[in-house]
């Protein structure tokens, strides 16, 4: 049941002062303005977050929760952008595009990983922000941990030189492509466009600009033994691609209620052949332009054995 692609533990950051980030609205077409007061919005987001944690833990997923009580990090609820973990004990820390997102990095998270899991090394790319470079983790890259491919949409959130460096360090093959939405806007993060499970892949092939590259991406996904579930641009707008496969008591796909409502019965049927669907209700958090996958920083590390007295 367990899978290299589907971690059994995640890190989540509880947002006490949630709001849509003004510094990222310029290139994140998924952001929407909330119609409620800032206080009410923050309270709703907090309740949605706690409900998501409860649902994940109820499904048998280990959830490490850290509180963010500051007011300078509106996107802290999306920690998958600033670090990632990898089998063999490897951790990457990433440079962020928006200046206020750089404040999301917190070393108490890394210390927890070192304490509870086997960490061999931490490769910190964040200093490259001073050179104007960014690579926003598993937002910018959708990683096939089995096939060792880093699917990456061209954007200002994924510097090509830094992507090559990451792929060399972590043994991935970069697969880069251009993607645009129906309004001809560049897709800013790859993980809104696609999500890779153990036996299937969610992706909107129509949003890949170059037809030849579109065919290559589909072929690579199929070569790794996955059924390609081709999403529509409308489904992507409902965050149907922003999902993460996890291992709890069963293997499951965590996605938002918005995303699940956008999927067709035939698509759901294919997914349910290998996983159980776990919808999380987070409509307020989604106004910030990210969904369930963005909220979950998967832990692909081996846990340390607990010492007994």
Description:
It is a single chain. With 309 residues, this protein is of the alpha/beta class. It has one domain: 5-stranded Propeller (L-arginine/glycine Amidinotransferase, Chain A). Helix content is 28%, strand content 22%. The protein is built from ten helices and 15 strands. It has helices at residues 38-58, 107-116, 137-140, 160-170, 211-223, 233-237, 257-262, 265-271, 283-286, 292-295; strands spanning 9-15, 62-68, 83-86, 90-93, 121-124, 141-144, 149-153, 173-177, 194-196, 200-203, 227-230, 244-247, 251-256, 276-280, 297-298. The strands form five sheets. A three-stranded mixed sheet has the order 2-1-15. Strands 3-4-5 form a three-stranded mixed sheet, with no helix packed on it. Helix 2 links the parallel strand 4 (90-93) and strand 5 (121-124). It is globular.
Report strand %: 15-25%
**Terminal residue distance:** 32 Å
> Could you tell me the radius of gyration in angstroms?
18 Å
CATH domain fold name? L-arginine/glycine Amidinotransferase, Chain A
Number of helices in the DSSP assignment: 10
Going across the biggest sheet, name each strand in turn. Answer: 2-1-15
Q: Give the helix/strand class.
A: alpha/beta
Q: Name the CATH homologous superfamily.
A: L-arginine/glycine Amidinotransferase, Chain A
Sequence of secondary-structure elements: EHEEEHEHEEHEEEHEHEEHHEHHE
Number of strands: 15
- Proper CATH architecture: 5-stranded Propeller
Number of domains: 1
Helical fraction equals 25-40%
Major sheet size, sense and barrel closure: 3 strands, mixed
Top-tier CATH class: Alpha Beta
> What shape does the CA trace take?
globular
């Amino acid at each position: 049941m367990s899978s290299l692609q589907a971690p059994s533990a995640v890190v989540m950051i509880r947002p006490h002062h949630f709001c849509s980030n003004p510094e990222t609205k310029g290139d994140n077409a998924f952001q929407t303005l909330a119609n409620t007061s800032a206080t009410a919005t923050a309270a709703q987001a907090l309740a949605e977050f706690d409900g998501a944690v409860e649902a994940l833990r109820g499904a048998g997923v280990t959830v490490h929760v850290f509180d963010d009580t500051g007011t300078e990090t509106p996107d802290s609820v999306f920690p998958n952008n600033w670090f990632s973990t990898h089998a063999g004990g490897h951790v990457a820390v990433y440079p962020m595009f928006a200046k206020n997102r750089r404040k999301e990095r917190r070393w108490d998270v890394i210390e927890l990983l070192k304490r509870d899991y086997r960490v061999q090394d931490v490769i910190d790319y964040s200093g490259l922000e001073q050179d104007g470079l960014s690579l926003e983790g598993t937002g910018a890259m959708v990683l096939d941990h089995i096939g060792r491919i880093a699917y990456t949409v061209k954007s200002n959130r994924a510097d090509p030189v830094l992507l090559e460096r990451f792929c060399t360090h972590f043994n991935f093959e970069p697969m880069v492509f251009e993607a645009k939405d129906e309004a001809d806007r560049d897709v800013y993060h790859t993980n809104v466009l696609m999500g890779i499970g153990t036996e299937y892949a969610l992706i909107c092939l129509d949003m890949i600009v170059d037809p030849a590259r579109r065919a290559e991406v589909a072929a690579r996904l199929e070569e790794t033994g996955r059924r390609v579930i081709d999403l529509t641009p409308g489904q992507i707008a409902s965050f149907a691609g922003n999902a993460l496969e996890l291992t709890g008591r069963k293997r499951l796909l965590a996605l938002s209620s918005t995303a699940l409502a956008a999927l067709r019965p035939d698509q759901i049927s294919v997914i349910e052949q290998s996983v159980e669907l776990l919808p999380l209700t987070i409509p307020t958090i989604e106004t910030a332009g990210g969904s369930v996958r963005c909220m979950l920083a998967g832990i692909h590390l081996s846990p340390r054995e607990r010492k007994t007295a």
